[in-house]
Amino acid sequence: MDNTQQLLQISAKLLKHLTNIPKGEERSEFIDEINDMLDERGTIVEKLRQEGFQMDPTNKLHTTLVELDSGIRARLDDTMKLVKQDMKDLQQSKKHEKQYMNPYASVQVMDGMYYDKKK
Questions:
Q1: In sequence order, which residues have a C-beta less than 8 Å from that of residue 109 and are 6 or more positions away?
Q2: 10-48, pLDDT tens digit by residue?
Q3: What CA–CA distance (Å, rounded) separates 5 from 65?
Q4: Which of 8, 13, 27, 48 could pair with 53 in a Cys bridge, judged by C-beta atoms 3.0 to 4.6 Å apart?
Q5: Do the beta carbons of residue 69 and residue 45 sit within 8 Å?
Q6: Is the distance from CB of 14 to CB of 34 less than 8 angstroms?
Q7: How many CB atoms lie within 10 A of CB 8?
Q8: What is the pTM of this model?
Q9: What is the 3-state secondary structure (H, E, C) of 11-79?
Q10: CA atoms of 105 and 99, how far apart (whole Å)
Q11: Separation CA 38–CA 72 (nearest Å)
């Protein structure tokens, strides 16, 4: 099987994998699988570059690869946005928890002590 066929297969597999984004604990495995597929895809693309691959707009296989690539990029952006939102929510919950535990931590009061010199 040539490299363009391999690239087409791994790209289709990656696009299918990106359709359902899990929540919670399953997300780390999901992201690890995405990284593995992207690494595999990157090695195939590098092999194609070394071979001197040229994009041919009249070739149906090449146009399919371009369409898959744009779909993968869009879904990766969506996944990235979800992960960023979860991280932001986690930071907010940490901040609110800290504020709940010590509500006066952010208040700076310059209270002093009063000493009475009288005996």
A1: none
A2: 999 999 999 888 877 788 899 999 999 999 999 999 998
A3: 10
A4: 48
A5: no
A6: yes
A7: 18
A8: 0.73
A9: HHHHHHHCCCCCCCCHHHHHHHHHHHHHHHHHHHHHHHHHHCCCCCCCCHHHHHHHHHHHHHHHHHHHH
A10: 7
A11: 10
**Interatomic CA distance for residues 21 and 33, integer angstroms:** 12
Establish how many alpha carbons lie within 13 A of residue 88's alpha carbon, considering only the half-sphere containing its beta carbon. 6
Q: Residue 30 CA to chain centroid, in angstroms?
A: 10
| Residue reference for tokens 């195939």 | 44
The structure tokens listed for 108 are: 């700076």
Q: Are 94 and 88 in contact (CB under 8 A)?
A: no
What single letter denotes the amino acid at residue 8?
L
Are the C-beta atoms of residues 7 and 65 closer than 8 Å to each other?
Answer: yes
Q: CB count, 10 Å around CB of 62?
A: 16
Joined together, the tokens standing for residue 56 give 């041919």
Is the separation of the CB atoms in 81 and 18 below 8 Å?
A: no
Q: With contact defined as beta carbons under 8 Å apart, do 54 and 4 qualify? A: no
